[in-house]
Amino acid sequence: MATKPTKVTISFDNDRAPVELPVLSGTLGNDVIDIRKLGKHGIYTYDPGFLSTASCSSDITFINGEEGNLYHRGYPIEQLAENANFLEVAHLLIKGDLPNAKEKKNFSLAIERHTMLHDQMLNVFRGFRRDAHPMAVIVSVVGAMAAFYPEQTNVTDPKLREIAALRLLAKAPTIAAWSYKYTIGQPFVYPQNKLSYAENFLYMMFATPCEEYVVSPILAKAFERILILHADHEQNASTSTVRLVGSSGANPFACIAAGIASLWGPAHGGANEATLKMLDEIGDVSCIDEYIARAKDKNDSFRLMGFGHRVYRNMDPRAAIMRKTCHEVLNELGLHDDPMFKLAMRLEKIALEDEYFVKRKLYPNVDFYSGIVMRAMGIPNSMFTAIFALARTAGWIAQWNEMHTDSSNKIGRPRQLYTGEAKRDFVPIDDRK
Ligand code: CMC
């Protein structure tokens, strides 16, 4: 096997002197060329979409897209999804390791202490139209938290960062559930701290003050899994957004609100909602071929939602687990013959066998299955991305906190390749064409 390079030399096809750059190796994964000093030589790199650029170093999550591996702090996602609960995974991401029994209890207690929202926040919810999309409400309410906890603008104090992390993690289910309650005109349901994190969210979503509501253990287990599978995914668009906003020293609520905004897009967290919309639009197995043809047509902007991934060129390991959960939940709920589920399974089969998708290594991603599971659980489409945001809050906090402890952290400030007009003189209005 070839030895690992430790440096690389860039040579130019003119009289510019060659530049030598170090090559860095992580614990796992590809080596990276350290180009930080390249700018001093008057040259920059060009990489829209960060196709080949590592934006930071991180100890939190590792993905091998070729093999389809995902590890959090070294633990494979399959083992975490099978054995841990969401708060243990959040502890692992944020604090660096799985909690022991005492730490687990203390972490849960600390979260419980922060599940309620400041009462004045009800007015923030009430300022919205009833038909507001839950993501529009959530992004605003999370941002508005900065107005309730002004002391948290100090991001250099680790203790304050820890309190911010607890507040965000603890209040995320309440904010998400209330964004839904508001749109359906039902009273807000307060958190019940005797319930687990996953149960509490389902309780606040589905309970009403007028009758007893018992959270189904089947649904709670499936929901716990959804949360774990979405908890972190290294430097994706929303996490990179959180880091970029955070790099200026912005308060944690502004950073997480920015992450939520980025997640909302259909190419990212919005894909679960878009997948279900697409399945509804396809409507019947007989129409699948037409949609597959559209997805392959370069003159049509339509893409098969819930398929493909920037990093995975193999089955997304989260999708494999979610697929299994999907079958379990639909079986347990007696929904296996549901026409929409049958349609989804047929689409999955056709796409997996189609040369276009095979050649491009486009597999169903986690959002393809999570949307189906959430629909079966009675969760409306409009809440799918909100639930993704709720789970990803753990990862965003961990990455934001890591950034603040990294001594090499600098304000994020990309360069550009300018392609506009060269310098020209101002034209008075009467002389303009
Ligand atoms: N349907 C049809 N063609 C596709 C799809 C798709 N879903 N995804 C990629 N392609 C094609 C694309 O047209 C291109 O073809 P060609 O090489 O002939 O030009 C090739 O596959 C590579 O695509 P790309 O756009 O260069 O890939 P990317 O890494 O920039 O995009 C993606 C990744 C996830 C944005 C994209 O696959 C996509 O839009 N998928 C649908 C949306 C979706 O499901 N997103 C959820 C991602 S997983 C959850 C998360 O982490 O946020």
Structural class from helices and strands? mainly alpha
Strand tally, please?
6
The largest sheet, given as strand count, sense and whether it forms a barrel, is: 3 strands, antiparallel
Radius of gyration: 24 Å
Share of residues in helices: 40-55%
Count, helices = 17
Largest beta sheet: strand ordering: 1-2-3
Identify the bound ligands. Answer: carboxymethyl coenzyme *A
Strand content: 5-15%
The low-pLDDT segments are: none
Distance between the termini: 65 Å
Could you report the average pLDDT, rounded to the nearest whole number?
94
SSE string, helices as H and strands as E: EEEEEEHHHHHHHHHHHHHHHHH
The best one-word shape is globular
Give a short synopsis of this structure:
This protein has 433 residues and is mainly α.
Please give a structural write-up.
- By secondary structure, the chain is mainly α.
- Helices cover 49% and strands 5% of the residues.
- The chain is built from 17 helices and six strands.
- It has helices at residues 77-83, 86-95, 101-112, 121-126, 134-148, 158-184, 197-206, 217-229, 237-246, 252-263, 271-282, 288-296, 317-332, 339-353, 355-359, 366-376, 384-405; strands spanning 7-10, 19-24, 32-33, 61-64, 69-72, 75-76.
- The strands form two sheets. A three-stranded antiparallel sheet has the order 1-2-3, with no helix packed on it.
- Helix 2 (86-95) packs parallel to helix 17.
- The longest helix has 27 residues, at 158-184.
- It is globular, with a radius of gyration of 24 Å.
- The termini are far apart.
- Carboxymethyl coenzyme *A is lined by residues 233, 236, 267-269, 271, 295, 303-310, 360, 362, 365-367.
